[in-house]
């Protein structure tokens, strides 16, 4: 007998304000449940054990709830103390880690903390303690950055120095996370060295991205852009980036830059410097990513277009978003179900993919619409009815996840968790139903639910 899949009916709201209030109420319930479960649980050695809390941002932006903020402060300090006491951290950073996972706690969790508590001294101190090593500004730690080449020396670095990679000098999109961390440091410090290094490093990438209309670079080396990944370079990279795509076409390469926060990095640099090369790089990437908007897993592409619109005020991709939505009707979906037991042989190609992601079904058929796309279309059109439908659909995803998936504290990058649905998994670049549906619609429409 076939076991029935977990399912939930989508509850239509009367209007967008009611849809927002219901979603926030469910998010609050999960947050307080997590606090009850984990307040007495000691930290683990997991590098991303606090990433799940970044899904809480809409609730905290709306309420600034004191209990939740105290929980986050306590967790932040307990994790830092644990890593230092276990000798995993030294001088505020890992003794040795690769650029992908090593930066996550700082860029994702501490970046989130800096947004919801912008004047918090302890968060500022921890961010600057880690970021000072990105530009060799601490004499206590061997240098990571090669100013002569304008690149990081290797993929692996930490308070113990740099792990030799046989002279490859390979810089991958994962290093763009270092750039986002530098911009975070600049937001916390008056010292322009953080912005200047971020801009110099980002310019190397942006120029390589726009240099060739026929192909995107896979990485950078002292010899120039890298367009093929094989041999020792591939072995080094695949040793930790198991969920990156094959990187044999521009969509995979653009996805790898997107998943590493590259579009947000370049937009931030354009906003700070006005250098058009950063905007051109973003548009080069979005020109590729828009072709995947009808893929139901490609919510991160829609979210990136939303970021582009908000930062630049430009509307270049609105027509592509509306054309994609025109093929998919959010009003026609009445129920969601999910198969979390599905096992894949590998990571599927495309945007927003992981091998461990659940299979989502709309009315018993493979899903077609990502609520992030519907939310962005609501912003573009100013349509409050569409906003309500996007919120109701996103809420259904979230509520179904809460009934049958773990929270995500144990593995912040995994796809089969509540956190992955709420704030996105490791390839989603912080694009989930709370962070890329609820939060932007709450802000754009100035929805102010009672309570």
What Rg is obtained from the alpha carbons, in whole angstroms?
21 Å
Number of H/I helices: 18
Major sheet details: 4 strands, antiparallel
- Overall 3D geometry? globular
Describe what is shown at a glance:
The chain has 451 residues and is α+β, with helices and mostly antiparallel strands. 50% of the residues lie in helices and 8% in strands.
Describe this structure in words.
The termini are far apart. It is globular and about 60 Å long. A hairpin with a 2-residue loop joins strand 12 (359-362) and strand 13 (365-366). With 451 residues, it is of the alpha+beta class. The mean pLDDT is 94. The protein has 2 domains: 1-43 and 293-451, no CATH class; 87-292, no CATH class. Helix content is 50%, strand content 8%. The strands form 5 sheets. Strands 1-11-12-13 form a 4-stranded antiparallel beta sheet, covered by helices on one side. 53% of the residues are buried.
SSE diagram, text form:
Blueprint: E1 7-9, H1 16-38, H2 57-63, H3 66-85, E2 89-90, E3 93-94, E4 97-98, H4 99-102, H5 104-116, H6 121-131, E5 145-146, E6 151-152, E7 156-158, E8 161-162, H7 176-188, H8 193-211, E9 219-221, E10 224-226, H9 231-238, H10 250-259, H11 262-273, H12 276-289, H13 299-312, H14 318-326, E11 335-339, E12 359-362, E13 365-366, H15 371-381, H16 384-404, H17 418-423, H18 434-444
Antiparallel strand pairs: 1-11, 2-3, 4-7, 5-6, 7-8, 9-10, 11-12, 12-13
Helix pairs in contact: 1-16, 1-18, 5-6, 5-7, 6-7, 7-8, 7-11, 8-11, 8-12, 10-12, 11-12, 11-13, 13-15, 14-15, 15-16, 15-18, 16-18
């Amino acid at each position: 007998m076939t076991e029935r899949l977990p399912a939930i009916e989508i509850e239509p709201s009367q209007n967008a304000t009611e849809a927002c209030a219901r979603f926030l109420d469910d998010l609050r319930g999960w947050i307080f449940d997590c606090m009850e479960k984990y307040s007495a649980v000691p930290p683990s050695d997991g590098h991303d054990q606090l990433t799940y809390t970044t899904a809480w941002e809409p609730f905290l932006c709306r309420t600034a709830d004191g209990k939740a903020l105290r929980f986050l402060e306590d967790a932040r300090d307990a994790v830092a103390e644990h890593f230092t006491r276990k000798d995993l951290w030294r001088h505020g950073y890992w003794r040795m880690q690769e650029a992908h996972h090593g930066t996550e706690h700082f860029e994702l969790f501490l970046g989130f903390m800096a947004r919801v508590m912008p004047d918090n001294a302890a968060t500022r101190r921890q961010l600057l303690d880690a970021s000072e090593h990105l530009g060799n500004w601490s004499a206590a730690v061997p240098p990571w950055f090669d100013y002569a080449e304008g690149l990081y020396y290797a993929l692996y670095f930490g308070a113990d120095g740099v792990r030799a990679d046989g002279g490859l000098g390979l810089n991958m999109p994962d290093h763009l996370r270092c750039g986002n961390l530098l911009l975070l440091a600049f937001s916390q410090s008056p010292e322009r060295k953080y912005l200047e290094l971020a801009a110099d490093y980002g310019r190397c990438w942006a120029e390589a991205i726009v240099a060739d209309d026929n192909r995107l670079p896979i990485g950078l080396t002292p010899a120039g852009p890298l367009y093929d990944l094989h041999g020792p370079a591939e072995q080094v990279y695949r040793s930790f980036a198991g969920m990156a795509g094959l990187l044999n076409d521009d969509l995979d390469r653009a996805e790898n830059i997107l998943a590493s926060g590259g579009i947000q990095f370049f937009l931030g640099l354009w906003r700070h410097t006005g250098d058009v090369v950063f905007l051109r790089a973003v548009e080069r990437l979005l020109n590729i990513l828009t072709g995947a908007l009808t893929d139901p897993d490609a919510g991160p592409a829609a979210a990136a277009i939303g970021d582009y619109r908000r930062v630049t005020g430009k509307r270049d991709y609105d027509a592509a978003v509306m054309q994609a939505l025109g093929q998919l009707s959010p009003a026609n979906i009445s129920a969601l179900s999910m198969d979390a037991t599905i096992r894949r042989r590998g990571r599927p190609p495309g945007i927003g993919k992981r091998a461990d992601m659940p299979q989502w079904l709309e009315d018993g058929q493979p899903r077609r619409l990502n609520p992030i796309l519907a939310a962005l279309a609501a912003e573009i059109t100013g349509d409050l009815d569409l906003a309500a439908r996007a919120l109701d659909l996103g809420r259904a995803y979230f509520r179904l996840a809460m009934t049958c998936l773990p929270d995500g504290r144990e593995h912040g990058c995994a796809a089969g968790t509540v956190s992955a649905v709420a704030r996105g998994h490791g390839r989603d670049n912080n694009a989930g139903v709370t962070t890329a549906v609820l939060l932007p619609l709450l802000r754009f429409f100035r929805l102010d639910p009672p309570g």
